[in-house]
Amino acid sequence: MESGLAQVEAARRFGVSRQTVGVWVRDYRNRGEGAFRPNRRGRKPGERLALTDAQQLDIARAVQSGSPESAGLDCLVWNRQAVTDLVHTRFAMPLGMTTVGNYLVRWGFPLPQDLLRALRAAACGPMESPWLPGAEVVWVGHGVPTWCPDAPRTPVLQAVSNRGALSFLAGDPRSAEAVADFVARLVRQSRRRLNLVVTWPPTTPDRIPRLLTFDDCAAAITVPRS
């Protein structure tokens, strides 16, 4: 930053969000180069978790309350990177995405490979909707994580790509409007061509568009009928 590099450009080069770069800059100004020394990895038996119960509850409630935008982040759906950025922004804790992924599993989220296997099996019927040749396939499902102590059992819409990238957003799986909003956010955030396979029939599935187009991306959406 001292050389004049914009935070947006730094975020692009390092593959992180603009908020994370802002936290790095603040840590550097407060602590100097020591802010970037790697912490000891791993945790000995009996050591406390990196996040306290109160901090876990704060993060869980933020995820349950809405999109990352409502928590001050510049992305549209939750994933490991977005939760990592939220922890860093709120608590100045530079947790790795693997650690954050472990928290998600602890809270009852499925492992991406397990979710992918389950959703592929659930969507074994014929594909009657449009299909974009060569586009990435993303499977859409839903679940109710256990979350952390004192957090309500909020249902979430989940999506996993064939590459194992997991995204999620709190929402009622019965609501076609909630599903339509989720898939539109997925497409806009990915900025690429997608084939989205919804693996269960929400109420009034006809309200979910079968084709979405934006300036820089598009998606074909398959939805089973009830």
Can you tell me about this structure?
The structure is a single chain. By secondary structure, this protein is an alpha/beta fold. The protein is 37% helix and 14% strand. It is built from seven helices and six strands; from the N terminus they run ααααααβββαβββ. Strand 5 (211-213) and strand 6 (218-222) form a beta hairpin. The termini are far apart. The mean pLDDT is 87. InterPro entries: InsJ-like_HTH (IPR055247), Trp_repressor/repl_initiator (IPR010921). One of its GO terms (molecular function) is sequence-specific DNA binding. This is Insertion element IS150 protein InsJ-like helix-turn-helix domain-containing protein.
Helix-strand pattern, N to C? HHHHHHEEEHEEE
Radius of gyration equals 19 Å
Content of β-strand: 5-15%
Report the major sheet.
6 strands, mixed
Oligomeric state as shown: single chain
Give me the side-by-side strand order of the main sheet. Answer: 3-2-1-4-6-5
- The number of distinct β-strands equals 6
Helix content: 25-40%
In angstroms, what separates the terminal alpha carbons?
54 Å
How many structural domains?
2
Structural class: alpha/beta
* Overall average residue pLDDT: 87
Shape verdict? globular
Low-confidence stretches are none
Q: Treating each run of at least 4 consecutive H or I residues as one helix, how many helices?
A: 7
